[in-house]
Amino acid sequence: MKNSIKSTVKYIRELSVVVIGIAITFTLNNWINNNNEKRDIVQYLNAVKSELENNLKIVEKNHEFYTETTEFGRLLSNYINDSISKSSKKYNHIISNLFIVNYKTSALEMLKTSGTMRLIKNKALLNLILESYESIENAKQMSDLYMMKKMDELYDVVLNNYSSGISDLTNPKYKRYMYFFTTHLHIENLFEESKNLIKQTLTLF
User: pLDDT, tens digit, for every residue of 144-183?
Assistant: First the structure.
């Protein structure tokens, strides 16, 4: 009887050691996994933040360009000989430049494919990140359409890198140019919205 009790106690003791060992291992693995997940989240978000900061510079540059394009359109609409001549140098680049929006999405794509997005607890930040990239894409699409139209309608100006002075646009020969610049969509508004959205997103990192 005593031997049986001793064997049982010994078995329970050994089983307890095994169970405790398994529990410790399981807890340690969970701790390591949690730390790895947190580290991955930080790395991916830092990459996205850096990418958004660089994209913001591109958005701001495009916003400035299209704002000047709108100013130029207003100037042509309210045409005054002297005003056009004095503003010639300021707006020459608006006439001939083809502005291409080349923003980056590699950090966002890495975040998406990594499976880490579901682990991000700050859903407000995550939603703003996605909305920021979407806003850039929307502005880019409108800009691309505008530039394609510009190349189609003003191909001679673009190819020849027009620089002879905006006053030339008053010549009847250049009426199509005047029409183009005074009827364009206000694309700067899209870039302004994108700029503000990105800035808001960056504050949450």
Answer: 999 998 888 777 666 665 555 455 555 655 667 777 877 7
Task: For CA atoms 73, 77, 82, 85, give the dihedral sign.
Answer: positive
Residue 102 makes CB contacts below 8 A (sequence gap 6+) with: 58
**Residue 125 CA: distances (Å) to CA of 35, 44, 122:** 21, 13, 5
d(CA 111, CA 122) in angstroms, rounded, equals 14
Chain-centroid distance of CA 149 in Å reads 24
For 104, residues 6+ apart whose C-beta sits below 8 A from its C-beta are: 51, 54, 55
pTM, 2 dp: 0.78
* Amino acid of residue 72: F
C-beta of residue 105 within 8 angstroms of C-beta of residue 47: no
Are 198 and 62 in contact by the 8 Å Cβ rule? The answer is no
- The angle, 0 to 180 degrees and rounded to 10, between the axes of the packed helices 106-114 and 2-77 is 150
* CB-based burial, 67-101: b 16+ in 10 Å, e otherwise: bebbebbebbeeeeeeebeebbeebbebbeeebeb
